[in-house]
Design a protein that fits this description.
It is built from twelve helices and eleven strands. With 287 residues, it is of the alpha/beta class. It has three domains: 84 residues, Winged helix-like DNA-binding domain superfamily/Winged helix DNA-binding domain (Arc Repressor Mutant, subunit A, Orthogonal Bundle); 86 residues, 3-Layer(aba) Sandwich (D-Maltodextrin-Binding Protein, domain 2), CATH 3.40.190; 102 residues, D-Maltodextrin-Binding Protein, domain 2, CATH 3.40.190. Strands 3, 4, 5, 6, 7, 8, 9, 10 and 11 form a nine-stranded mixed sheet that branches. The protein has a two-stranded antiparallel sheet with strand order 1-2. Helix 9 links the parallel strand 7 and strand 8. Helix 1 crosses helix 4. The longest helix is centred in the first third of the chain and has 28 residues. The protein is elongated and about 80 Å long.
């Protein structure tokens, strides 16, 4: 039994279409048919049935599919392991991290850590902060970088960083040195405020905003990168951590609006882990 027959079968089964399988595998459609026929001959049963021009998995094909997928997964896992070994990587560290942190603080940390520990294969799993603890509990990640503190007593927690939250508005086209600064009250009453792009501070911040601006217009935009894009396009304003908009502010794509009327919250970053290991301790020394 050849692995290429299993790969062809798994691909054809996923689409129930030999033509699409041929396009995905960069082989001819007759080659797909030959691989399937050879596999069926060795197994002793049909993997597909036909219904008019349609190709459908047979009952035997549906039963055999997870076994074929398991063989292919094991094969590719073995190849990956050997490639890591060839590169001198003998250990793996899986970091689950929120999208906001992955795009802002993680690149600097990874650059330093991987240079100091080239034998560690670093895997990055990007998840919303509410799902990070789950990854640590089920063992699929070693370390979590989250915007939320832990909710469980069996998760270790370290407060890494706190930073100011800024009111960010579209660039008005004026010269920053000659134009008067934007007025926060005007900005908030004349624009839609994009909310809940950060899981840590919006409940209390919104309560404060609604108290001061009862007619405040809001729109939930759950991802910070989408929020920033909307602001650049002039669709509204938002409150974002300083690190999330550092580049946009430096390049003049958005503006920081001072809010002297009330105290803005701080955005926090937490490092979470459940089990200690040599790799975890080494990473802790860099953050």
């Amino acid at each position: 039994m050849k692995l290429e027959w299993l790969q062809t079968f798994a691909t054809a089964a996923a689409h129930e279409n030999f033509r699409q399988a041929a396009e995905i595998l960069f082989i001819s459609q007759p080659a797909v048919t030959i691989h399937i026929k050879n596999l069926e001959k060795q197994l002793g049963f049909n993997l597909f049935t036909t219904q008019g021009r349609r190709v459908l998995l047979s009952e035997e094909g549906r039963r055999f599919l997870p076994h074929a997928q398991a063989v292919l997964k094991s094969y590719h896992s073995g190849l990956k392991d050997m490639e890591q070994w060839r590169q001198g990587k003998t250990r793996t560290l899986t970091i689950v991290i929120s999208p906001l942190l992955a795009a802002s603080v993680l690149p600097r940390i990874i650059r330093i850590f991987t240079k100091a520990h080239p034998h560690i294969d670093v895997v990055i799993d990007v998840q919303d902060s509410v799902f990070i603890e789950r990854r640590l509990h089920d063992g699929s990640a070693n370390i979590g970088l989250s915007l939320l503190p832990t909710s469980g007593s069996n998760i270790h927690q370290k407060l890494l960083h706190q930073e100011p939250v800024l009111l960010v508005a579209p660039h008005d086209g004026g010269d920053a040195e000659t134009m008067p600064p934007l007025d926060a009250t005007t900005v908030l009453t004349e624009n839609v405020v994009f909310t809940y792009n950060h899981p840590g501070y919006w409940d209390s911040l919104l309560q404060m905003l609604h108290t001061r601006f009862p007619r405040l217009q809001t729109m939930t935009v759950s991802q910070s990168h989408v929020t920033k894009r909307f602001i650049e396009e002039g669709l509204g304003v938002s409150f974002l951590p300083r690190s999330a908009v550092r580049r946009e502010l430096m390049e003049g794509r958005v503006l920081h609006v001072n809010v002297p009327e009330f105290d803005l919250p701080q955005a926090s970053t937490y490092l979470l882990y459940k089990y200690t290991s040599e790799e975890v301790f080494q990473f802790l020394s860099y953050v």
